[in-house]
UniProtKB/TrEMBL annotation:
Family: Belongs to the initiator RepB protein family.
Domain Initiator Rep protein WH1: 2-136
Protein name: Initiator Rep protein WH1 domain-containing protein
GO MF annotations in UniProt: DNA-directed DNA polymerase activity
InterPro entries: Initiator_Rep_WH1 (IPR000525), WH-like_DNA-bd_sf (IPR036388), WH_DNA-bd_sf (IPR036390)
Pfam families, alphabetized: Rep3_C, Rep3_N
GO BP, sorted A to Z: DNA replication initiation
Stored Gene3D superfamilies: Winged helix-like DNA-binding domain superfamily/Winged helix DNA-binding domain (1.10.10.10)
Domain of life: Bacteria
């Protein structure tokens, strides 16, 4: 589920950027406001999907393999992503704690995944594309991955053993589809090489490079008079389209307007809210 993946990634990024880190005892928080700003959804949508994801994520599990040190044989384990998850309805906050077995598996992802990377996956609609991007950026510094064994790679992308069993279906509906989204909608361009054992494809490796950044257009420096600030802030506070995106739970119109007034003193925010101002026929 895409929302569940987004929830996990936001939790990881928040833990990293706040310095909290992730241990088996960490109770992490994901706020609806963070989900709204990152994935550009409306307030009521964020509250609904986070509530639903907080219920469904508890039942999700991951499968991983290791080698039995006593026998040297491969063994397969299933473990839940979280052992505790809750939702605070009034404020739209999800609280979650990763399981003991999951924490070591996401440590490397925590080191590499920031809110910048989450912005890159925010437009991806395929869960396979999100997981492919997560996997690739762990080798961002070199732009080249090792060879992923086919069975391991399928698990890393979240493909069940009964799904897309033929190579043609796997490429068409998983790998090529995911790669197309990554190349079109994120900050990297990637290609894969297939590796064979005899005549059978047994693994894949990837090379990728960073796209050139487009030059950012600097927002026009503009300032509002005190009278304009009061007028614009009051109009925006009562505008349903604007308030659904930017108001906070339980915030009164008066307090919301005061907060907007302070935000409008920054030219960057004037540019950010320009579409809403235009819709209200408010000219800077």
């Amino acid at each position: 589920d895409t929302v569940e993946q987004r929830l996990i990634l936001l939790a990881i990024a928040e833990a990293r950027e706040t310095g909290q880190g992730i241990t088996e005892n960490s109770l992490l928080e994901v706020h609806a406001s963070s989900y709204i700003n990152t994935f550009n959804v409306e307030k009521h949508t964020a509250y609904t999907v986070l509530r639903d994801a907080s219920r469904s994520l508890f039942d999700r599990y991951v499968t991983y393999h290791d080698i039995n040190p006593k026998t040297g044989k491969d063994r397969s384990f299933h473990c839940r992503w979280v052992d505790k998850i809750g939702y605070e309805h009034q404020s739209g906050v999800v609280f979650l704690r990763f399981t003991q077995d999951i924490v070591p598996l996401i440590t490397r992802l925590e080191e590499n995944f920031t809110k910048y990377e989450i912005q890159q996956v925010s437009k991806l609609t395929s869960t396979y594309a999100i997981r492919l991007y997560e996997l690739l950026i762990q080798w961002r510094s070199s732009g080249q991955t090792p060879v992923f064994n086919l069975s391991t790679f399928r698990q890393q992308l979240g493909v069940e053993a009964t799904q897309y069993k033929t190579m043609s279906n796997f490429k068409t509906y998983v790998l090529d589809f995911a790669l197309k989204q990554v190349n079109e909608l994120t900050d990297i361009t990637a290609n894969y090489q297939q590796h064979k054992t005899g005549r059978t494809i047994s693994g894949f490796s990837f090379t990728f490079k960073q796209k050139q950044e487009r030059k950012k257009v600097k927002p026009k420096k503009a300032s509002l008079t005190e009278k304009q600030l009061d007028l614009f802030a009051n109009k925006l506070a009562y505008d349903s389209a604007f308030s659904s995106q930017f108001s906070e739970a339980g915030e009164s119109y008066e307090n919301f307007a005061k907060r907007i007034k302070q935000l409008l003193k920054d030219p960057v925010n004037l540019d950010k809210y320009s579409d809403y101002l235009d819709n209200l026929d408010l000219k800077v």
